[in-house]
Structure formats: C-alpha cells, structure tokens
Amino acid sequence: MRLLFVSHRRDVSGGEICTQRIIERLQDHSVLVILPEGAFSRRLIQAGIDVHIDNALTCMTRSEDPYSFFKLAGRFPGLVMRLARKIREFKADLVVSNALGPLPYAGPAARLAGAPNICIHYHPVLKPGSTNARLVFLLSKFCDGFIAVSDAMNRGLQASGVRHECIQTIYNGLDIDYFSPSPARSNLLRSSFKLPPEIKLIGLVGTFFEAKGHHVVIEAARLLRDEFRVETPWRIVFVGDVFENSRLGADYKTRLQKQIESAGLQDKIIFAGKQTQMRDVYLDLDIVLNASIEPEPLGTTIYEAMAMGRIAIASDLGGSPEIVRDGENGFLAPAGNGRELAAILAKILQGKIDLEPILLAGRRRVKEAFDIRETVRQYISFFESYAKKP
User: Fold this and answer.
1) What would the CATH number be for the domain defined by 188-369?
2) In this structure, are residues 161 and 132 in contact, taking their beta carbons and an 8 Å threshold?
3) Is 274 helix (H, G, I), strand (E, B) or coil?
4) I want to staple 308 with a disulfide (CB 3.0 to 4.6 A). Which of 111, 275, 282, 336 is the partner?
5) Segments making up each domain of the chain, as ranges
6) DSSP letters for 94-151
7) Torsion over CA of 202, 204, 208 and 212, rounded to 10 degrees?
8) What's the CA gap between 225 and 265, in Å, rounded?
C-alpha cells in the first residue's frame, strides 16, 4: 500500500509518539507524512521517514486565537488543493488523518484526488450534543472510516452520529521488549536534581494544560505532607512543558508555580522539563500519575509505566479504566479529587499495600493489550479494508 499521513502538530505528544511507532513498522509499505515543520517532523526525518512540510497545517484553536476560524477558512482552498495534488503525485492508496485536526483539509483533498480517507481519533472523548460532537458529525461526511484508540473514544464517535460499522477500536501499542523492567535505576532525574536514592519519586508525565490535572497533584502533595503520616521521603516530579508555545499552557504553568509557593511546597515539587529518554525517566520514578480532570483518550504514560514495572495511578475517566483495573494492576482515583489521590499515595508510601502482585499484573496487562506488533497488525488490516484496490 501507499499510505499518505496528514498531521497538524509541530510538537510531540502521546498521539504523535504512537503514530511514529506505527509508521516505523510499516516497512513493507510506502509512507509519506505531510505536516508542519517542528519537533515532530524532525523526529520523523531522523527515523528515516519521508516527510513533506506544509506549514499551513499548523494547529490553531478557538481558545488560543479568537480569529482562528477566519484564518483557517482563508487558507482552506489553497491547502486543500496542495494536499490533493500531493495525494495524486504520491499515488496514495489511502489518506490517513492523524487526529481530527487535519481532517477538515485531508478529507476534502482525498475526495478531490479520488482516494479513500480514514481518521485516527486520538482526542477528545466526544460528549453528545457538544460543539465538537456536531463538528465531527459534519467532518465524518468526508471520512470513510475511523480508528478509535479506546472504547471510550469509540462510544463518543457513535454518540456524535458516526455509524458504528465505520469505527474500529485499536489500542495504541509499544515495544514491550524495550519498555521492560530493570532492577537498576537510570539516575537521570536523581542526578540532575541531586536526589538521594531513598527518596521516592512520584511523576506526572504530560504537557502543561489544565485538563492534565497538575493542580490536583499539587493539592494532593499538600495533603500528603500536612495530613497523612508518611515517614518515607518523597518528591513530586512534573515531566514535560508547555505544548506548541500555547498561551493557555504557559498561563497554567504560572498558576501552578504560584499554587506551589502559596502552599510552601517548593521543596517537594520539581519541574523536570521535557525529556526525550522516556525509558530512563520511568526507571527513575517509583509511581507514575495520570491526574486528568477530563476524559483521557487512552493515556500513553499509564501503560508505559506499567510496562516498566512502575505503579500507575490514573483518573477514572475516558480510556484509563480500560488500562487500569483498580487494585489489581494499578489504581484509579476520582478525577479532580486531591484528597483521594493523597490517600492512595499515603498507603503506598506507608507500605500498607503489597505492590509486587500489582506490578506483575500491570506488566501482564500491557503484554495482553498493548503490544505494538498486534497494534500494527490491526492497523494494516484496517488500512487494507479501505485502501484503493488495484
């Protein structure tokens, strides 16, 4: 097959990482990715993947720029025509929109070029009657099929009016041999911040965006310090930074810093910035948090942590409960509830929970459901069912 992917992201988050993992394993097929210049395009080029740069694909949202709709409308005709021309030149058997963002361009362009189009639905988890749901219903007219990365995403698409027979749930995957437990720590974070080995590190890996729930973790840290008897020394580590120079993300990060200062938690919370060696990050963490206050599509960091033999605590929203079985292979906390999160952390740090069977069950769960080889097999099967036939 000749597969043409369209992405609108400059920066790299979970969805982009998962897409790269899949594309790298499509060696028997010709792949071209069209996207704006940035960290994601550089990663793909470094991995030897063919890339075509079109900076008009840059993401703009209403919340960041009130004039984004008019800017997007202004660039629409030219961008669609360029994409259609590229689809024809590449002789694509299938056009793949990497998330909903590029679908308004990639869908019409594929129609003009006479190629089928499918969309990988990474985010958001759609709510019936919402603006996003109505928009997706309109966009679905230009899309032949959808891959949902969780059953929660699948249900959201159906609630938006997309026919169930056009949707297939395929979990994102990872290389379970690479993301494997190790008795040795990497000391990537500990050496950077001069932390002794006896300190337990509790990490939240994610971009600074209010939906990720960093503020909930800070409140949990305050309660853990002030109201729970925990003698084991600990630190909270925020791994990540503002995504794509987002103004809202930068404002949120500033609010978090003020929240930390107000609670006197400067000695308990560390901003570790962006990290590229994620296996080394997980090796240095003891507990990994996903504190999202809005439904998480799936939660890449959750199953990466479980694969690495780390305890995962996730919010009970979206696709996270499809990964974590509470008390069996990890823990689920009520979204937005800092006290419940602190209580779970306290029990773990106090040694009140036998963690070994939970760690083993977490690794088994990843092997069962998130092996990248099975993910790619399902992707290829789905692509073949929609691709142009010779």
Assistant:
1) 3.40.50.2000
2) no
3) coil
4) 282
5) 2-173+371-386, 188-369
6) EEEEESSTTHHHHHHHHHHHT--EEEEE-S----TTSHHHHHHHHHGGG-SEEEESSH
7) -120
8) 9
Query: 206, 301 in Cβ contact below 8 A?
Result: yes
Residue with tokens 């069209």: 34
Of the candidates 10, 324, 49, 21, the residue with the CA atom closest to the CA atom of residue 172: 21
Question: pLDDT tens across 127-143, in order?
Answer: 888 878 888 888 888 89
pTM over the 0.70 mark = yes
Chain segment 80-122, per-residue pLDDT in tens: 999 999 999 999 999 999 988 888 899 999 999 999 999 998 8
| Longest pairwise C-alpha distance within the chain | 68
Peptide bond into 197 cis (omega under 30): no
Assign a CATH topology to domain 2-173+371-386: Rossmann fold (3.40.50)
Distance between CA atoms of residues 372 and 307, nearest Å: 12
Of residues 99, 107, 117, 5, the one with CA closest to residue 52: 5
